[in-house]
């Protein structure tokens, strides 16, 4: 079976800036693939090259075996694309949006109607098909956008950061929908800067940073890369100045992070760290309020692989929703 996506040394320069730097990977048909990276990493540039919207500086991309640069029209028949800014026509109803999109693809009227009905039902907006989209919430508009991208029944769906700016519930609905589409056979390629999103949805994740693909594997394998290390998370009943420095200097501790009122100590030897912690608590007359040993998450693997400072991660947390992946019994 031909690869859904095959990319070889794909590169894009904007003047002196190497936005995408010789990336190579393949996505199998039926796969749910995520390109994960911080803002500015090159995700949008990559997806635009894969969907024929932007010409690569060098390298090749094939979609279902078709060269994107040489046969953009044939590629467009194989793909649905949801860009970050894609929107339905607000002054039109959901139904008319789909009819219009179908006509652009040259679909006969009967087929268009059939597809519109199927998709609107699948996406849970059939009952509201005759309302103008402007009355819809952001989450519902996104669903209409997805329906439009699927109207010609493409085997491969591209989505650039599909849940950015959506409320938690809409984002969850979109994720469930994507999972369902994938179960029905659609190959999915999405970009995201939400580590949790990549973790819960994707069969495989490519991590992109500074235009380079720095890792590519299943979320579980990516996590396993950092599995030797554990995190001892502790909080005390009161704050002592400079305690973080002291914790960082404990012999078995490799790295510390402050998370709210908790300190996270990265270590290969959690039981030793716990002993040291109770010593410190005693010396300083502190009570330990909570103490947990956690297994590193995909977030940690991401930090390790990209060499991202915790400051960068903090910045990402501030702008949004980099949520900690909770691992039970870690
Ligand atoms: N049209 C453009 N002209 C010049 N630089 C650009 C252009 N588009 C993107 N860039 C730069 O290329 C890099 C990658 O951008 P982008 O692909 O949008 O990243 P991401 O989608 O991962 O946030 C960034 O440094 C960005 O500023
Ligand atoms: Mg982007």
Report mean pLDDT, rounded to a whole number. Answer: 89
Unreliable segments of 5+ consecutive residues? 319-330
Give the tally of β-strands.
14
Kindly identify the CATH topology of the largest domain.
Answer: Rossmann fold
Largest sheet: 6 strands, mixed
Derived structural class: alpha/beta
Enumerate how many helices there are, as a single number.
12
Give an overview in words.
The chain is of the alpha/beta class. It folds into 2 domains: 5-219, P-loop containing nucleotide triphosphate hydrolases (Rossmann fold), CATH 3.40.50; 224-319, Alpha-Beta Plaits. It has 12 helices and 14 strands. The strands form 3 sheets. A 6-stranded mixed beta sheet has the order 6-7-8-3-9-10, sandwiched between helices. β4 and β5 (66-67) form a beta hairpin. α3 packs across α4 (109-122), α3 runs parallel beside α5 (138-150) and α5 runs parallel beside α6 (168-183). The protein starts with a strand and ends in an 11-residue tail after the last helix. The structure holds adenosine-5'-diphosphate and magnesium ion. Magnesium ion is lined by residues 43-44, 160-161.
Short description:
By secondary structure, this protein is an alpha/beta fold.
Identify the notable features of this structure and list them briefly.
330 residues; Rossmann fold; Alpha-Beta Plaits; four-stranded antiparallel sheet; 12 helices; 14 strands; disordered C terminus; binds adenosine-5'-diphosphate; binds magnesium ion
